[in-house]
Amino acid sequence: MSTHENRLCRLIVREHFGPIVEKVANVLIRKGRMPVGLIANFTALKPRQVRECLFVLIQHNLAVYAESQEKSRIVTYYEINRTELLNRVLIPKVLHSSQDWFERDGVLITQSLLTHGKLTITDCVADILKTSGIAPGKTSTQRTQSLNKVFTRMVKEKCLIAVRPSDSLTTADKDMAEEKRETDKMTLPPTAAELASIRKALGAQKQAEQNATIVGLKRRLDTMDDSYGEKRPRLLTDGDLVIVEEVETDVYFKVNFDRFIIRWRNVQIANLYEARLNPTAKTIMQTIMNLAEERMINCKEEHSSPVSIMLLLNSLPKDTNLIDTLEFDSSDLGPNNTKPKIHECLDKYVQILEEDLMKILKRDAGRSGQYIINLKMASEILKKNLIQGIVSARFGAPYVRIMNMLADKGKLEEKQISRFSMMPVKDVREKLTTLCTFGVLNLQEVPKTKERTPSRTYYLWEVILSRAADTLTDRLYHTMGNLRQRRFVERAKRAVLLNKCERTDVKADDSLLNAAEKKELETLNGVLEMLEIQELRIAEMVITLRDF
Amino acid sequence: MSRGGGRGGGRGGGRGGGRGGGVPGIQTFGPDAIQATFKNPGETYPDIILPVARPPTDDEGEMYIAMKKLQETLYSSPYYLTEPKKPGAITRYTDRYHQDQAAKRPKLDTIKSSKSFFPDELHSILDPKTITRKRQISQKYDISKIDENEDDGDAEIDPETGLAKKTGDGEDGLEEEEYEDEEDEDDNDYGENYFDNGEGDDDDGDDGDGGDY
User: Fold this and answer.
1) Largest alpha-carbon pair distance within chain A?
2) Which of A364, A391, A393, A360 is nearest to A378 (CA)?
3) Among positive and negative, which fits the CA dihedral A319, A322, A326, A330?
4) Which pLDDT belongs to residue A344?
5) A430 min Cα distance to partner chain B (Å)
6) Cβ neighbour number for residue A30 with a 10 Å cutoff
7) What is the mean pLDDT of residues B192-211?
8) B88 vs chain A: nearest CA distance in angstroms?
9) B93 CB contacts (<8 Å, ≥6 apart)?
């Protein structure tokens, strides 16, 4: 959309897939959807090369296509999937989280899927066995079984998601085709109201499909094999059968970035309570989020599914100390001053969390003993905190004071802001214009007369959170593009040295590089590490502003 | 422009003296930041104090190593497309140690994927033996009736196109024409070019020579 976003997308493709794919992606990003012939014209590449680039992009879920009938031919148009492309900046964090949640096998599976875009379980396991080998003391069958187990767990937890052939088609074309199918059933053309109801029904159907069972997972009955040592075979009863969930071998899977973003958001929501209350409150909140996470599909939902307090009590980590971290009144403890029971402590904690001013946790009105999380409120608080942090680091405390005041009180005039913030009007005016140029504040003109003369117009300043988040996201894209480009420049500056390091004799023998060259390589490594880490930090800010 | 040059020259001298004297640069970030305003724009290129980033944590270091490893894997995978190296004019001794990465990478037809994810025109990338079929909607014409049309001088003219209306047996439907996968030298997909880039415009040319100015 914006120039900075386009540049960042182009640089991501260049780093991961090379300069030829970058040319094709650049044309599609800047000019929109087009067929192979037109792309070849714009890029001056051969049609065969363009097809190879498009193949690579579709394989990695970065491009979609649509076939349309034009006169006597079927023409295929290709389009870039920006969301998936921009998610690639989060790959280092995804790999690290896979390590934390699924250990070494999880990282290997994630790496294999990110290298190939999409794979079946069999191909993924075969690729891992080929690249990383088998540890001594383990057989190939054991290794395959352990990888299959981790893969199945990742699919069950929705960190991996099935890819269907329809996912390679553009969403707009799919929606239009479904709408056409519904309207073709009608004898007369649909009215606006009928069309709206058809679209609503299709949207609800799509939502229901997402909430349904996990695609790519099948269930089968298996026996619990515990008949070791029995001489006579015995008849199997229902109690011997267990339901085993297995991943279908012919279904392709890819990394589900949305699930990782949901989990990171849940961790950040729980972290809010650590600063406000105590670490035990954070643990309780984290457990509630984990229990509600199963039904979450994306970060844009307003409320979570209800969580019962009994389930929460059973799911808390064993080392959670509820009793000693709470203070009870002597009247609550009774005449013998006995320590309260754990469920009473949990009730007290949940009451404190519910009464907290952030209003994130609230009682489910329909059912007793159930609580839901106001995800929309939580996301707004996270965004506001981040924007305050950015403004504070960039401009200082007085600017944050003005911004917070406008966020709390709504639209205010210059004079009112000056009175509330106890700053002279001249200073306030400068700060307001600076913040407006930065993109955090908005100006609303309310004319008193029809002529809209400046002297007879109210100028009201306000903070619109969504707009501020969008503007700052664009600025952050600009910064990320700069950091990425700087990496290319740093490598280009040392191109001769890097070319020397690529030589087969230098790879075999390090001593062919002199001390100055080795030091230069170390400096380059340090610079690239800093740039990559800075970009990752900014990417984390971007997902807070854009996706939460 | 002389104003800009004069300013730059004067300021450059001042700055040089300032740097020698140890005058600190301007703080543009944080609580003590000096913001440029309309009345006090400040210097055009001031010496600014840049904020220093906090050092990387252990987790971030691990993330960098994991990403570097993935980058190397992608670089040597069939998905990283580069032009094959053309032999240079001069042959050097060290050329024997340089590997052509493009030649070393596996080809795209070795990857494991399914044709159902790709449109027909990309199937040949995954499976080079596939004969690409161009899907067209065509009308069949009855050849025996061509002579009849020629004798008939009262052929109906289509008012829209100004051409004779087709009277052959029309059959609307998808007819698949098979053709071999295009060779590189015959790669000419201009048939699919929706826009003619102005080639179809009649260029009348100048009315006589424009004359030299």
Assistant:
1) 101
2) A360
3) negative
4) 83
5) 7
6) 14
7) 51
8) 16
9) none
> What's the CA gap between A364 and A379, in Å, rounded?
19
Type of residue found at A378: A
Other C-beta atoms lying within 10 Å of the C-beta of residue B111: 19
Question: CA B122, CA A43: separation in Å to the nearest integer?
Answer: 18
DSSP string, A197-215: HHHHHHHHHHHHHHHSSPT
User: Are A113 and A254 a contacting pair, CB within 8 Å?
Assistant: yes
Count CA atoms closer than 13 A to A367's CA, side-chain side: 9
Compare all CA atoms of chain A with the CA of B173 and give the residue at the minimum distance: A72
d(Cα A368, Cα B60) in Å, to the nearest integer? 44
Q: Is A467 exposed, middle or buried (0-12, 13-18, 19+ CB in 10 A)?
A: middle
Residues from chain A contacting residue B194 (CB–CB below 8 Å): 35, 37-38, 70, 75
Amino acid code (one letter) for A157: E
Place of tokens 């190397």: B72
Of A367, A357, A371, A366, the residue nearest A284 (C-alpha):
A371
Q: Are A46 and B202 in contact (CB under 8 A)?
A: no
Chunked mean pLDDT (size 10), chain A, 548 residues: 92 95 95 94 94 95 90 90 94 95 93 95 92 79 91 92 88 83 81 84 76 73 54 57 79 94 93 88 91 85 88 85 73 67 84 87 82 92 94 91 92 92 90 92 91 89 94 95 95 92 85 90 94 95 93
C-alpha distances in Å from residue A19, one per residue of A116, A532, B81: 19, 20, 7
Residue B29 identity (one-letter amino acid): F
Token digits for B146? 């061509």
ipTM score: 0.87
Q: What is the pLDDT of residues B61-94, one digit of tens each?
A: 999 999 999 999 999 999 999 887 777 788 888 8
Q: Which residues of B touch A92 (CB under 8 A)?
A: 63-64, 66-67
Closest-CA residue to B83 (of B107, B101, B108): B101
Please state whether A458 falls in left (phi above 0), alpha (psi between -120 and 50) or beta: beta
Q: How far is it, in rounded angstroms, from Cα B82 to Cα A519?
A: 30
Judged by DSSP in three states, A297 sits in coil
What residue spans of A157-278 are helical by DSSP H?
A: 171-184, 192-211, 257-276
Q: Which residues of A touch B120 (CB under 8 A)?
A: 76
Q: Nearest CA to CA, how far is B207 from chain A (Å)?
A: 31
Element (H, E) at A442: strand A442-447
Q: In angstroms, rounded to a whole number, what is the distance separating the alpha carbons of residues A118 and A164?
A: 10
The residue among A108, A533, A534 with the most chain B CBs within 10 A of its CB, best to mutate, is A533
Q: Which residues is A64 bridged to in the sheet?
A: A79
**Distance (Å) from the alpha carbon of B36 to chain A's nearest alpha carbon:** 9
* Test the A interface: residue of B73, B81, B95 with most A CBs within 10 Å: B81
Look at B36 and A400; give whichever has higher pLDDT.
Answer: A400
Q: Taking phi first (over 0 means left), then psi (-120 to 50 degrees means alpha), and beta for anything else, what does residue A303 get?
A: beta
Query: What would the two tokens of residue A6 be?
Result: 């386009």
Spatial separation of the C-alpha atoms in residues A196 and A181, rounded to whole Å: 15
Distance, CA of A385 to CA of A268 (rounded, Å) = 11
H runs (alpha helix) in A34-138: 36-43, 47-59, 82-87, 91-116, 121-132
Gap between the Cα atoms of B30 and A235, Å rounded: 77
pTM higher than 0.90: no
Q: Does A337 touch chain B (CB under 8 A)?
A: no
| Beta partners for residue B48, in sequence order | B26
User: What is the largest distance, in Å, between two alpha-carbon atoms of chain B?
Assistant: 102
**Parallel, antiparallel, or unpaired for β B48-49 and B26-27?**
parallel
Hey, are the CB atoms on B192 and A56 less than 8 Å from each other?
no
Q: Which tokens belong to A322? A: 């509820």
Name the token pair of B47. Answer: 């010496």
